[in-house]
Amino acid sequence: MKIIKPYLLAGSLALVLASCGGGAEILSTPTENIDNVALKVADLTENEKHTWGHLDIVADTIPGMSVDKAYAELLNGKTGETVIVAVIDSGIDIDHEDLDGVVWTNTKEIAGNGIDDDKNGYVDDIHGWNFLGEAYNEQLEKTRIVASGNGNAEVQADYDADYQKYSGYKMQYEQIYQSLVAADEAVSEHLNNKDYTPKDLNAITTTDETLTNHIAVLKQVYGFGFDNTAAAKKELSGALESINDMLNYNLNKEFNGRLTGDNPDDLNDKPGYGNGNVKPVKKSESHGTHVAGIIAAERNNGKGANGVANNVKIMSVRAVPNGDEYDKDIALAIRYAVDNGAKVINGSFGKYYSPHSDWVRDAITYAGENDVLFVNAAGNEGADLDAVAVYPNDQVANGPEVSNTFVTVGALAPKYGSSMVAGFSNYGKINVDVFAPGAKIYSTTPENEYDTKGGTSMAAPAVAGVAALIRSYYPKLSAAQVKQILMDSGLPVNQKVVVGGDSSDIRDFNTLTKSGKMVNAYNALIMAQQLSK
């Protein structure tokens, strides 16, 4: 699931340029108190920005998951079992200072001997498996379909619309970036200071019309929340890189990023393709590292981030390129994770076309049959998943579920009240199970760095972390029971919220998800304890 790209910025700048079983109430905070929580007016502190997903709705007036409260009041002094969590994603920097202590190691395999010691079909899979080999960029699935000549008029129209849209974005963003650079250079020269502040900018008085226009551009940039032009240029540069990737690779019908030598349309072709190197192939391949940190970054080690779960080992399964994943890779990745001991799988990826969705659905069924919980990101288009299919999923056309261990997660923003649903988050009364913190999440990125990212890609691992906590401290509970706990123990929200980032679309929160709740670690552990008696 690609992280939301800041394309909306272009349009703006262009203006210038519950209960359990029998119904025993277990909420630590009564529902009526939740509904009357005072809205937070003050801006988040730096610490709150970095930890908001772990905070408590009542104590902090931030819609977090009460993770810190759970550790302080419920887990203090307790010892849990180690849980393997498979992260099916881009590569993970397993040498990161905040992750190197939580990396899964296949003790049945001897590193570097070129032999499949454990006879699982994968040679030297020490920390997981890389189904992509050395590949990085890939086409979107719609591009593959159109290029193959197998697409219908609807797919062709969808492809053509995207190609036209991103071509327009490219032109617009290049113009905006050039205007910003020119404005920055002009003001720097006028002030003889490259590190000027908004205060310095506001103090300029001039009758020079050109300089006045440059100042107006920079003031508009600051108005969108940037503290300086360097941050704005970084944002725009990143967006341009994404747009160029989209045109050069994702939407390029002539591009072929497949390097593993197998036939992706044959599930049985070349078993064991890929290699055991699960690390990113370039620094910008940061998605998997960020997701892994949300789940299990080493807690309280004095470094950048705390994961939701302790007692976790992260199994890295590299299967998501810079483009759409192949169904074959995902189906085999799920089976690899199950067969090698994962009890929770995180899937922060997704697409809207899936020629072999049955392969993936069969793998999801396999995970459920083997007591493995699959936590799935809902997607980032602000769409109703009851009306449009996104893949992977565990049902066909809103029909019966093939697994009762598949959880789909929407994303919350760090502001309780009408704006608490992230504007990008998909939703659905049938097809989305719960919501969890997913906007502006701080976590690990490659080469011992940290960054803030947003998407349902970040909400899913938050829930995977809570699931891992339950499975660690209450290991007798089944994956199906863990799913039910996540849904039943969450906090119900009787609020009207903005949906899809559209201020005219206001709905009851409980209509956006099957449970009508946001995940709460504290309550989940209380319910898990009750069910384990």
How does this structure look, described?
With 533 residues, this protein is α/β, with parallel strands linked by helices. The protein folds into 2 domains: 8-138 and 271-531, 3-Layer(aba) Sandwich (Rossmann fold), CATH 3.40.50; 153-250, no CATH class. 36% of the residues lie in helices and 12% in strands. The chain is built from 16 helices and 15 strands. It has helices spanning 8-13, 31-35, 46-51, 57-60, 67-75, 141-148, 153-191, 198-202, 209-223, 229-250, 287-296, 327-339, 357-369, 456-473, 479-488, 521-531; strands at 19-20, 24-25, 83-89, 128-130, 312-318, 344-347, 373-377, 406-412, 434-437, 441-445, 449-453, 491-492, 496-499, 502-508, 517-518. It has a 7-stranded parallel beta sheet with strand order 4-5-3-6-7-8-9, with helices on both faces. The protein has a two-stranded antiparallel sheet with strand order 1-2. β10 (441-445) and β11 (449-453) form a beta hairpin. It is globular, with a radius of gyration of 23 Å. The active site is at 89 (charge relay system), 287 (charge relay system), 457 (charge relay system). It comes from Lacinutrix gracilariae. GO terms for molecular function: hydrolase activity.
